[in-house]
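Thread: Newbie trying to understand structure tokens

Hi all, I'm a second-year student working on a class project, and my supervisor (Dr. K.) asked me to get a predicted structure for one chain before our next meeting. I've only ever worked with sequences, so writing a 3D structure as a token string is new to me. If someone could post the tokens and maybe explain what I'm looking at, I'd be very grateful. Here's the chain:
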Amino acid sequence: MDLAPHLEAGQLDVEGVAGVAVVAAAHSDGYAATGHLLGLLAALPAPTAAGERFWSDLWRSSGTAYLLPVNIKDSVLRSLAGEGTALARQVLSAVDEFTPPQRFAAGEVIGQALVESDHLPDLKTQVIGELWLRDLELTAWRVLHADRRSDDPAGRKAFLDAWTSV
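---
Reply by user tm_fold:
Sure, no problem. This is what the structure looks like when written as tokens:
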């Protein structure tokens, strides 16, 4: 938008404010999905000594180290700054590697942790874990989809042209 970084908000004219609003709206889906992705991870035990058993069980049950805190730390930190595509790609790579038995076992481990932390004893741990995994996958997809969509002005114009000519 070519705005000088030293400008105060009071110095923006209507066109400048509209430009900021357009940029914010174009990226809001991606930011919201990234926030939700982080929220899903925050529901799991923290990667501290207290959560070490959970992460070890998740690794053994899933058969992949992609989701271990040491392997996603940098991506999580970038996501906290609003850039969630690396974390989304890593999440999708991890769940793509699961065999059906590994997914089932990982869902059980995740569900058990969520039942204990959210006090949901009336729901089966496997169901909770599977719902969490589905939400994680779909949210990661939303992050990637929003990123792809926001960077393609020619694609947006072609879409608009196609739909306005129908």
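A couple of things are worth pointing out once you decode it. The mean pLDDT is 84. The radius of gyration is 20 Å. Feel free to ask follow-ups in this thread.
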